[in-house]
Amino acid sequence: MADRVEGVDPADFRSALARFPSGVTIVTTRSEAGTLHGFTASSFAALSLDPPLVLVCLDRGADCYPVFMAAERFVVNIVTPAHAELAMKFATKGENKFAHGRFAFDDERHPLLPDAAAVLHCELRQAVPGGDHVILIGRVHEARTGGGEPVTWYRGDFLHLGERAA
């Protein structure tokens, strides 16, 4: 009989993870029927430079989960402090998320934030199960940067980065 492994207390785990600041993104796509979908993610990272790959984690319980599993493309918007309220809307179930922000559209009609700190246009390459989330691996086909500084999520709130030295 294998040794029983004690599980970590979920509150302790969440508290420990909150001590690690992470960037905030709004990830968007368009369904085959043309409806817009998106979610807020702080689990986002560069995966590879050659080829250019990123990863973002999506909760399997999210309303938009089935749409992203069927999507061929998605857009990662790295948000600024001006998007903090919008990011909270995109983290909420049942919210009409696209009613709260000013979105532009790429050539394939995927929504993007024109004033984001950066925007990455991705092709979904792989969806890897990861517990209660799925890891979306995207091949970046276009990347552009904006003028704003990104915002981070730390200890349950937004943390604004300081101005860059000249």
From TrEMBL:
Q: Which domain of life is it from?
A: Bacteria
Enumerate the spans annotated as Flavin reductase like domain. Answer: 17-160
What is one Pfam family matched by this protein?
Flavin_Reduct
User: SMART domains, from UniProt?
Assistant: Flavin_Reduct
- GO biological process, alphabetically ordered: pyrimidine nucleobase catabolic process
In alphabetical order, the GO MF annotations are:
FMN binding; riboflavin reductase (NADPH) activity
Query: What keywords does the record list, in alphabetical order?
Result: Oxidoreductase
Query: What's the protein name?
Result: Flavin reductase
Q: Which organism is it from?
A: Streptomyces kanamyceticus
